[in-house]
Amino acid sequence: VWVMIKEVINELKEYIRFIQKEYGWCIRIHNTALIAGKFAHELDEFTSHATPYCKYIKSDDRAWKACLQGKQKIMNKVQNGMFYGVCHCHVGEFIIPVFHAGTAVGFISVGEFRTGMQHAHKLLSQTEQKYNLSIEALTAFYEKSLSGTIPDGNFVSTLIKPAARLLEYICSLQIQNADESQQFHSSKVIMNYRILNYIRHSYNKKITVKQIADFCNCSESYINHLFKKMNKTSLSAYINNYRVKKSESLLTGTNYTIAQIAYDVGFSEPGYYSAVFKKLNNMTPGEFRKQHEVKF
Questions:
Q1: What is residue 201's predicted lDDT score, i.e. its pLDDT?
Q2: What is the pLDDT of residue 296?
Q3: Could you tell me which residues come within 8 angstroms of residue 60 by beta carbon, excluding any fewer than 6 positions away?
Q4: pTM above 0.90, yes or no
Q5: Region 226-246: what's the mean pLDDT?
Q6: Average pLDDT of span 73-100
Q7: Cβ density class 61-72: b for 16+ within 10 Å, e for less
Q8: Fewer beta carbons below 10 Å: N end or C end of the chain?
Q9: Whether 89 contacts 63, CB under 8 Å
Q10: Contact call for residues 192 and 227 (beta carbons, < 8 A)
Q11: Which pLDDT score, from 0 to 100, does residue 152 have?
């Protein structure tokens, strides 16, 4: 069954990549820990908004926390079906529910779209003041990295609902074969989802257990115990593995130095990064780059 789930996830990923490339949409899957269980990491590339506009705004932790709060509101609304909405930072998206047993356990967002620039300028000024960001950078990112053309909702629904059905199938399979602690309604799963979200947002910065514990409003010992039980690995090992995975695309897609890549993905020492990379991949970062024949 686990092999089958992974095969379905791979098919889903290929389908989403095709839609993104064909139409230029940003497609993201929300609540992957609840939907895919222990396979949530397989969907990492679709779990965070990657446009320069969103990245710039989320450089302020207050904006990121507001985004997380907004997701809970979306979860409440999406129980009634697909809709089009605009987030607290003025980005428009279609929201398509992922159901299990008649309840929305997650959703797919399709975007990212902007309003008219004349109307947006006033809204961006409010965002500038709220998060102490540069209005020039906000305006440039908003205009250049978001699409000004909002597609027909029925067309979006036709293309995205098959992806939602696949996620529902994945959810059903993993719940049927998970032990009680991994059930999607478990408070432990919810907490684990918050921890994973924190790591995905902050992997390129220094991360401490205390920071995560404060974010989740619980003790450091509980965070360590819960994370290891839910993910079958320690928190530090998961963070190192996540950072290494993030570094691989930089090794194969840029001409950055290995030291620069190490710092960019959150390692404080290039030597330690290389040691961790070799332990996980049985080769050094330099050997990995050479094997993939990166040329610039």
A1: 78
A2: 47
A3: 131, 132, 133
A4: no
A5: 92
A6: 92
A7: eebbebbeeebe
A8: C
A9: yes
A10: yes
A11: 96
Percent of the chain with pLDDT over 70: 93
Given a contact cutoff of 8 angstroms between Cβ atoms, the answer to whether 153 and 68 are in contact is no
> DSSP per residue over the chain, as a string?
-HHHHHHHHHHHHHHHHHHHHHH--EEEEE-HHHHHGGGGGGGGGGSS--SHHHHHHTTSHHHHHHHHHHHHHHHHHGGG--EEEE-TTS-EEEEEEEEETTEEEEEEEEEEE---HHHHHHHHHHHHHHHT--HHHHHHHHHHHSBS-PPPHHHHHHHHHHHHHHHHHHHHHHHHTS-GGG-TT-HHHHHHHHHHHHHHHHTTS---HHHHHHHHTS-HHHHHHHHHHHHSS-HHHHHHHHHHHHHHHHHHH----HHHHHHHTT-S-HHHHHHHHHHHHSS-HHHHHHHTT---
Measure the CA dihedral 255/256/259/265, to 10°.
-120
Instruction: Compute the distance between CA of residue 125 and CA of residue 118 in angstroms, rounded to an integer.
Output: 12
pLDDT at 33: 66
| pLDDT at residue number 178 | 62
- Report the pLDDT value the prediction gives residue 117, as an integer from 0 to 100: 65
**Residue pair 97/104 in contact by the 8 Å Cβ criterion:** yes
